[in-house]
Specification:
The chain has 245 residues and is α/β, with parallel strands linked by helices. Helices cover 38% and strands 26% of the residues. The structure holds adenosine-5'-diphosphate and magnesium ion. The site of magnesium ion has 2 residues, from helix 1. InterPro entries: AAA+_ATPase (IPR003593), ABC_ATPase_HisP-typ (IPR030679), ABC_transporter-like_ATP-bd (IPR003439), ABC_transporter-like_CS (IPR017871), MetN_ABC_transporter-like (IPR050086), P-loop_NTPase (IPR027417).
Length: 245
């Protein structure tokens, strides 16, 4: 549990002249589940996107597996194979089957043997209960199914860290549980290291080893999960939790 995967120091991020992240510092260890909570507009998505090279930052450092992250696109393309991300909108390729969606990057980008990758993809599909859909196209799937495929697609690259940004926010209520269940399994059975942004507080309370509470672009609390949900340290976080009931 003590191997450091990600270290963020003095991260500052601006959109134009407007600062949206202020001196963000935290460290993430292998197998740890970090839940990033905070009001809408507090900078959660921006922080996740910055950690995946989808947003530039103006000051601070990122260290991944002990190596400083160089802020150029070539380096980020390599890192994105290690840092998987799933968003609120499932962005599957519409013209590819489920299986092709999953195997494309491992074969084309990582150069792994197609047969191995395919076998693995089928096993992953089985794990999320979607084996029957290997040859289906995204349009034939429900939102919840698409989101499970999006997770499997990210996992097929063998990431060392997964970032989840409100992956159930656009799903019908009856679809939410299946997706959250997969994320829970990933943490429990695969000991996957994850940063999760979610509005599902029960889920967050069950899964979070640690909570980072963000408000106005600043980390207001960095607290063990149980402690945060039982008794947050700041009024700001308490108000946030009360508002989520
Ligand atoms: P959250 O995910 O916590 O709701 P965001 O990271 O999306 O918050 O947004 C943080 C702040 O940055 C908000 O004030 C938002 O309006 C602003 N913001 C987000 N994306 C952009 C962008 N592409 N350009 C300019 N401002 C942005
Ligand atoms: Mg967001």
């Amino acid at each position: 549990m003590e191997t450091e995967i990600l270290k963020v120091t003095h991260l500052n991020k601006f959109y134009g002249a407007r600062q949206v992240l202020f001196d963000v510092n935290f460290t993430l260890h292998q197998g740890e589940v970090l839940t990033l909570l905070g009001p809408s507009g507090s900078g959660k998505s921006t922080l996740l996107r910055t950690l995946n090279g989808l947003e530039a930052f103006q000051a601070g450092t990122l260290t991944f597996n002990g190596q400083p992250v160089v802020a150029d696109e070539a380096h980020w393309q390599k890192l994105r194979q290690k840092i998987g991300m799933v968003f609120q909108s499932y962005d599957l390729f519409p013209n590819l089957t489920v299986l092709e969606n999953i195997t494309l990057a491992p074969v084309k980008i990582q150069g792994r043997p197609a047969a191995t990758v395919q076998a693995e993809a089928l096993a992953l599909l089985e794990r999320v209960g979607l084996s029957a859909y290997a040859k289906a196209y995204p349009r034939e799937l429900s939102g919840g199914q698409k989101q499970r495929i999006a997770i499997v697609r990210a996992l097929a690259l063998h990431p060392e860290l997964m970032l989840f940004d409100e992956v159930t926010a656009s799903l019908d209520p009856e679809m939410v549980r299946g997706v959250l269940e997969i994320i829970k399994q990933l943490s429990q059975e695969a000991a996957m290291t994850m940063i999760i942004v979610t509005h599902e507080m029960n889920f967050a309370a069950q899964i979070a080893d640690r909570v980072l509470f963000l408000a106005d672009g600043k980390i207001v609390e960095d607290t063990p999960g149980q402690q945060f949900f039982a008794q947050p340290q700041t009024k700001r976080a308490q108000e946030f939790l009360d508002s989520m009931d």
